[in-house]
Amino acid sequence: MARLAHAGGGARRGPRVRQAVDDGVLERRIKDLLELRTDANARFFDEHSERIARLCHRMAERFARDGRLIALGRSPADRSDVRHVAVEFVHPVIVGKRALPAFGLPVDGGPPASQVPLLAASADIVIAFGAGDADTADAVRAARDRRCLTIAFAQTGAEWEFAPAVEDPFVAQELVETLYHVLWELVHVFFEHRGLLEGRTAGAVHDAGAASFLYPFLTEGEGGLEQVIADVRGSVLMKAEEIGALRRQTLGENVAALGAAAACLRSAFARGGKLMALGNGGSATDAMDVVADFRHPPRGWPARAALDLTEDPAILTAIANDIGTEAIFARQVIAYGEARDVLLAISTSGNSLNVIAALGEARARGLATIAMVGYDGGRVASEGLADHVIVTRSQHIPRIQEAQASAYHVLRELVELD
Asked: Which range of residues forms the domain containing residue 208?
């Protein structure tokens, strides 16, 4: 294994240790991983952009009839997407966008195929994550039997299937995440063209509102369905270009930080330490995904000790109720953290008080710390609150989360770099 020696960062740095990257192994590997993502992203959205636009229209019709989005999945990694897509629709991060009803059915409640008949109604949308296994296909079949609109990312018998043509499971997951973010962003277009929704009696009134920057071209007036579909398709392609550029920035500017963070994790695991991950909202689901990738890794990699600090609602709600939300992660660091461990904090802003409190508690206890942050890095970057900081330079939260997914997937791979 090509050793990337442990290196500190931020305000707590010790003597710098030279990383074993003289032969360019690290830079070449990250470049290869970036190229794989860039190519897959361009091909996927070029192929599916019109179908995505038409699906947004169909989803808007279901929501307009009081339908709900129901997400399901079986694996630990699928669980993070189930939770992520639900929180995006229920708690919109863009000012002026309406909350849309959505919830998840991970395997905590039993096989998805047995849950769907209990909770799904004919106006609903069912989105199935994961491989095209028999259980997922049974769940999709149950949803279709109830006349739900069905979406999947493998061959399951869903009406709308978007199977990424890429073998790398991390890249496939990133494409899927971008896709459901785009669905959430652009389904709103058709609420602003209410006359184009089947079953709606409202006239053709168009108001792009405060969030018109999300979909260029769409503030020029009401048009026919095909014109709106064409405009939405153009917006899909623009969003695909945006995430491609942001991945290039995130991975290209943070080669050294990613290499040092991977070395830090490798050293911690060798000492019997563990990774703890945390975040809020969509970033909480990213923490779930990180932990799933370490505890249940693909490709025959060794399983690594990892703990999700967002996982237990009893602990989170008890601390939030009795002490306050600022303490929900710091208290867990006190309970579980050891000096040989590593804390990974994921934040789109870099300013979340409970993230900052947890990083401070971890540093006080001698844990190594890694942060993935958006915007300009916020307080985490400017005040050096983590040893290794990976900054995704954007103010658009869905794109930040997508690029951060690439960053932590690459980090996972670098830990096992041969």
From this structure: 37-242
